[in-house]
Structure formats: structure tokens, C-alpha cells
User: What shape does this take?
Amino acid sequence: MERLFVYIVDRPFLSSRDPLAGLTPLSWLLRAFMRLPHIAVTEEAEIEEKPAAYIAVIPTTMPLVTEETLSEIAEEMERRSISAMEIGAGRIYAREAFGKEPKRRLRLPALRRVVSLAERASAEKELYRRIAEISAQNGVIIPDVDSVRIDAASNVKAGAVIQPYSVVKGSEVKEGAVIGPFSTVEDSVVSAGASVLYSVVKESVIGEKTSIGPFAYVRMGSAVGAGCRIGDFVEVKASFLADGVKAAHLAYVGDAEVGRGTNVGCGTVFANYDGKKKHKTKVGERVFIGANTNLVAPVSIGDEAYIAAATTVTKDVPQGSFVIGRSRAECKKRE
Assistant: This one.
């Protein structure tokens, strides 16, 4: 509506600098009025009359207001010959009535003030729903738009699937990827065809056609290659896993480089911390690491090495070597 000019009053409320569904309240309003003439001012600033038919004054305590909302109100005011209207804690005036106190009040869900924690939660829920609906319209497959949380800082491509009760924050989810159910992806990239099921991925990159979960945790600057499998109760931290690496269950991979096609057995621990410092482990390509193995960093494992189950590795292993470090079991009669 070209005849509408919007003042956005930057009025702090609660912790207003914290994001609502990925953006600050001020940012939500600036985005909403991108196509309208508008200006953001501080609460103490003087608001001057503008050469527009209608002037709206909207504080940041009303982050749900949109261009469509104000345009509809202005049109209704014109039809009913209303010169001034109060909307929540904001105002909209016909130009000739600018500066006068409104005599009419309008109450709509989008126009309510957000000044309490309960109101903030309600507003954020509505913003998340809007994002989910727009994402679905753009080709993202979302079976239940009310149950997912995709924030405004995320980029979810058409063809991706976001299952119920999943959270996507500050992340890119590419076509064909599946997130959820009950998963969190934060500040990460999930590549095409990958899946994250009942798991958490933070500050990491997941390669194409890689499966994460259920109940896995990938965090803190990790990169998992294409065609990998990170199974149940596996944690990956600050590590690089090349294409085709498999850690099926119950393992910790920390501060490591793991080569292409390596198998990390159940119960394997990359022992990266000596009580004072973190150390790195380097594992070559096509290495077999048996169940219940400890790799005590700093240590390096050569390509195509075979580590027998229940072995503790404290020294570098040459390429193609077989390593076994467990003691033989003894069976004695009870006295």
C-alpha cells in the first residue's frame, strides 16, 4: 500500500536482542515492511508527519505485524471514515489526524503486545508456524507445520523432509535430506540425501547420503563425509570422517581424522584427553577397528591396519599391520 508509511519504534522488551525464531523483533518488523516506506527510530525520537495517506507507529513489542495486516486496517479505516486507530500498543492514523489520540481500538492476535515470557513464547510459536508454512509452500515436505521449529536464519531446500518435533536453527538442509523426528540441527549443513534421525547435530557438516542416528551426537566443528553411517549412541566431536566411514554404535570419536572406508567398532573410544590437553588421533583408510578398542592419543594408525577387539593402542601402527593387545583369559576353579 504505497500510501502507508511505517515508523518502527525500537522499544526494548524482555531480552529483545535475543532472537525470536532466528531474528530480533526489530528484524522481523523490518522484514515485514521491506516493500513499504518505513524507518526505524528509537523510543525517544520525534516522529514527524510524512506525505502519506496513513501513518503507522509500530513498536518492536509487536513483532507479528505484517504489511498485509496494516494495509487491511488502513483500507477498513478508509471505508468506515475512521481517522485514528489503536492496535495493541501501536497506532495508525489518517494523515489529517496524525498526532491525535485514537478513539477506536482494534484487537487481533497479530497485533497483541509481547511484554511477558508467556506472550513471547506464544509469538515465537506463531512465527515458527509462519516459517514452516512458507517452507512447505516452497516445496519442503513438512507433515505437521505446528510441531517443527525452523528458524529464519535457516535455508531448507525444496524436497527436504522435516519430520515432527524437529528443530532447525541457523542451518542449511539440502534437497532430499531428512531431519527427524525428534532431531536438532544447529549451525550446520546437512547435504543432499542425508538423514538425521532422533539425533543432534551442532556446528558440523554432514555429507551426502550419510545417516546419523538414532540417538547420535555430532558436534563442535565436525565434518562427516558422504555415505557414512553414524549409528546409535555414537558421539563425534571436532573430527573429520572421510567418505564411507562407519561407526555403527556405542563409540566416541573425538579430535580425530578417520580415513575413507574405515570401520569403527562398537565400544571404541578415541582417548583424546590426558587430563590437561586434548590430543589428535589419525586413522588411515580401510582400517578395521574391533569392538571395545581404546586409541590413546596422540597416535596414528596406518592404512589397512587391523586392530583386534579389546586392544588398547598407545603407539603408532604401521600400514597393513595386525595389532592385538588383550591378555589371555584364564579359567580357574573356585575354591
About this structure: The chain is about 15% helix and 30% strand. The chain has a mean pLDDT of 93. The CA atoms of residues 9 and 41 lie 5 Å apart.
